[in-house]
Amino acid sequence: MQHALDVIYRQHSRGYQHDYQAGFQLLDVDMSGLPCGPKAAFATKGYFVGQYHRRGRQVGRVLATAYEEVVVDRLFAGNVQLIKAVQPLVEAAETTVELDATKRARMILRVDAGAGTLDDLNWLLARGYLVLAKEYSGSRVLRLAKTVTEWVQDPVWSERSFGWVTEPPPGYVRPVQCMAVRCRRQDGTFAYGVLVCSLSAEQVLTVLGRPRSQAADPVAVLMAYVTFYDLRGVGIETSFKGDKQGLVSPNARRNALRRNTCW
To answer: How far, in Å, CA of 37 to CA of 27, rounded?
Structure first.
C-alpha cells in the first residue's frame, strides 16, 4: 500500500515536481493524537489533549507545505511522540520524494520541540537538510535564554518578545543560529523557548519573500526567523485541524497561528 501511494504521489503531485534550483522546498513534520477504541490497531494509552486516560493512536505526517500536499502519513502507537518518530517519518519522505544529497541540500525541514533534541537535529543536519526547530531541552532553553542581552517586543502580541542568543550553541554538527522567545504568563513570569535554525539570514528572507537588504538589520532578521517558525500554525497544524474538523475557516487559521505564536 505504501509503495502504491508513493507511485501515485510521484505521478500526480506538485511537490515531487518541485524545481530545487529555483527555490527551497519546505517540509513540515509533526504528529497528532487520534483517540480510538481499545481494540483498534496500535491502541495504547498516551497523551491526547484534554482527554486523560484515553487510548488512541498517533498519526505522524510530513507535509509539503507550499503545495498543501501530504507526502507521508504513518500510524504509531498512542504513547509514541515525535522524538521517536521524526527519523522514520523523514526516511519515508525521502523514499516518497526520491531525495538525493542535492535535493536534501535545498530542503527545509521545520519541526517543533518534539523533534528538537540534539541527536535528532544532528541526524537531520548530517543528512544535509536545512533545519528550523524548537529546542527540546528545558535546561538548555533557560541557559541559552539568559545570554540574550536585548529583548525585542513582538509588534503583534504584547505578551511576547524575542532576542538573539549570544552564546554559541554547543554540540551541533553544522553551524546554526539560535533565537530565544519569551511569553508572559498570567502570573507575570515568563515561559521561554529557543529556535534553532541552520538557514542563513538571506535564505530566510528569500523564503519569506522579503528584501535581502534586510539582512543588514538584526531586528528584521530576528523577526524573520520567528515569523518563519510561526507559520507552522497555518501549515501542518491547520492540515491536522482540517482532517479532524472539515474545512477550516479563515478565523480558525488565525486562531491556529495565534496559539502557535504564544509558545
So the answer is: 31
What secondary structure letter does DSSP report for 26? E
Strand intervals (E) in the chain:
25-35, 44-45, 55-64, 69-77, 107-110, 130-134, 152-153, 160-164, 177-184, 190-197
Report the DSSP pairing between strands 107-110 and 25-35. parallel
Whole-Å CA distances, 146 to 133, 153, 165:
19, 17, 8
The helix/strand/coil state of 152 is strand
Q: What's the total number of domains in the chain?
A: 2
- Write the DSSP symbol of residue 58: E
Whether residue 126 is contained in a domain is answered as no
Find out whether 59 and 82 touch, Cβ atoms under 8 Å: no
* Residue 246: predicted pLDDT: 54
List, for residues 50-82, the tens digit of each pLDDT value: 777 788 999 999 999 999 999 999 999 989 999
Separation between Cα atoms, residue 214 and residue 195, nearest integer Å: 20
Task: Tell whether 248 is covered by a domain.
Answer: yes
Grid cell of 221 as nine digits = 532578521
**C-alpha neighbours within 13 Å on the C-beta side of residue 20:** 14
- CA–CA gap between residue 252 and residue 245 (Å, rounded): 10
- Which residues, 6+ apart, have CB-to-CB distance to 97 below 8 Å? 9, 15, 16, 71, 103
Domain span including residue 182: 134-263
